[in-house]
Structure formats: structure tokens, C-alpha cells
Design a protein that fits this description.
Elements lengths: L4 E12 L2 E13 L4 E5 L6 H8 L7 E6 L10 E4 L11 H5 L1 H5 L4 H14 L15 H14 L4 E5 L7 H18 L2 E5 L3 H7 L2 E5 L6 E6 L11 H13 L3
Parallel strand pairs: 3-7, 3-8, 5-6, 6-7
Antiparallel strand pairs: 1-2, 1-4, 8-9
Helix pairs in contact: 5-6, 7-8
């Protein structure tokens, strides 16, 4: 199967008055369409910078990022969910969720019709007219996730989407994320500090070295979903990844 995205010997550095600071050096790996990949590595190694490179917010100084041409014309290939929910405080929850659809030109009535079944399925039914300040952190993250997915992009980038949540809420949203990924079939690329999260959710875990980052090792995971995070296989795999990260 042809890769939907590949990185070939990527180099990127920050420049300031003190000179050049290499962040990513000779980074290469591939992503298959419809797959779920997590990227882990030491804090500050350039994981979020990598996502910015993938969605063309910044350009690599060397190397090539290849994205397979779309089957139909589209203005953008990627959705991007940041660490913070970034909900607009003056819009209701449902109007935040349908923001991407509105940008695409979908009439508000039709956009809300598409959003309501997902809101019901993921625990936001009854909160359509509430504002972000009236919801818990977990509910806001659910709204942000639905907003990203309803935008209907081929590739979804997730930057520590559940990092600020408590353990119970995080596990619940991880399960919901996998349900959405399996039902919609998008390609997911997630940056996370949580190795257990990476192991439970991903088909591939890319381990990055410290700065300047390159690929240390890639772990392929062939376990079926849903996964038992306490199984021997999952615990052993988590330990191998932590050892690769030298933690």
C-alpha cells in the first residue's frame, strides 16, 4: 500500500540572536493511509515542531515531506487538534463544533444536523446551547475533537489532545477517539508524552531521540482493538518503548 505521507531526511532548526539551534535532524519515516501513528520522545525533542512541519505551518530547511495527491480536489488535507481545546468563548458548544463545516460553506442548519448525533453519542447531548466556560475540561476536549473530525480531513494531527485531563477522563476519551477513528477511517498522527496512551491507541509508535531529533526506533503494534492496557503484551511493549527512550 502506498504511503499517504512520508518524511525523507528532514532537517529543521530555530534561529535567534544567539545563532542556530538544530531541532530535527535527518528524520525519516512513512505513514500508511487509514493508520494510527503515535510519536513519542523526550520532552523538548521537537514533536510539536514536527506536526507544524507536517501541516505546512513551517518549512523544513532540508529534506522532503511528501503527501500523496488527493483522489478529489480539496483545499486542505489535514485537521489539527492542539493541546488546548481552543473553543471560541462567544460561540455555543454546537456552534464551536460546526465551525469547520461553516468554513467549508455548509449551511448552519445542515451542519448542526450532522453534529447532533455525534454530540449525543459522545456525551454532549443537552449542552448544545452552553458556552465553553460552563463545561468541564473533558467535555470541552470532546467538543474540540468533534470539531476537528467534522471538518472531514483526510489526515488528523493530534498534539497531546488529552494531556491536561485527569486519568479517568483521559482513558474515556482515548476509547472514544478509537471508536471515531475506526468508524470514519481517517489517518491519525498523534504526539504524546504518555507511552501507555501510545501503546493502547496506535498501530505504530515512532520513538524520537533527544534534540536534534531523529528516529530512534519504530514499534509496529498488531494487537486488535479494544486493547487491554494491563495485558502482559501491552505492559511489556510499554517497557520496551520506555527503555528505548532511556527512561
Amino acid at each position: 500500500m502506498e504511503s499517504i505521507l512520508s518524511l525523507d531526511h528532514i532537517y529543521y532548526s530555530y534561529h535567534d540572536k544567539n545563532g542556530e539551534t538544530p531541532v530535527i535532524n535527518d528524520l525519516s519515516f512513512e505513514i500508511k493511509p487509514g493508520s494510527f501513528t503515535s510519536i513519542v520522545g523526550p520532552s523538548g525533542c521537537g514533536k510539536s515542531t514536527l506536526l507544524s512541519l507536517l501541516c505546512d505551518l513551517i518549512k523544513p530547511e532540508a529534506g522532503t515531506i511528501y503527501i500523496r495527491p488527493p483522489e478529489n480536489n480539496t483545499d486542505s488535507r489535514m485537521g489539527y487538534m492542539l493541546q488546548k481545546d481552543m473553543l471560541l468563548p462567544w460561540r455555543t458548544i454546537i456552534d464551536n463544533i460546526i465551525l469547520g463545516l461553516e468554513i467549508k460553506g455548509v449551511p448552519k442548519r445542515e451542519a448542526r444536523k450532522q453534529a447532533l448525533p455525534l454530540m449525543e453519542k459522545y456525551g454532549l447531548s443537552g449542552f448544545e446551547k452552553n458556552y465553553p466556560c460552563e463545561l468541564s475540561g473533558g467535555m470541552r476536549q470532546r467538543a474540540a475533537l468533534l470539531r476537528t473530525l467534522l471538518y472531514d480531513r483526510e489526515i488528523i494531527l493530534l498534539d497531546e489532545p488529552f494531556g491536561a485531563l485527569d486519568a479517568f477522563t483521559r482513558v474515556s476519551l482515548q476509547d472514544r477517539l478509537i471508536e471515531l477513528w475506526k468508524s470514519i477511517g481517517y489517518t491519525a498522527i498523534m504526539v504524546t508524552h504518555d507511552v501507555e496512551e501510545a501503546v493502547v491507541l496506535s498501530q505504530k509508535v515512532v520513538v524520537m531521540t533527544g534534540r536534534p531529533a531523529k528516529v530512534s526506533k519504530i514499534f509496529e503494534i498488531n494487537q486488535d482493538y479494544p486493547r487491554n492496557r494491563n495485558s502482559i503484551e501491552m505492559v511489556e511493549l510499554k517497557q520496551k518503548i520506555l527503555e528505548e527512550m532511556h527512561i
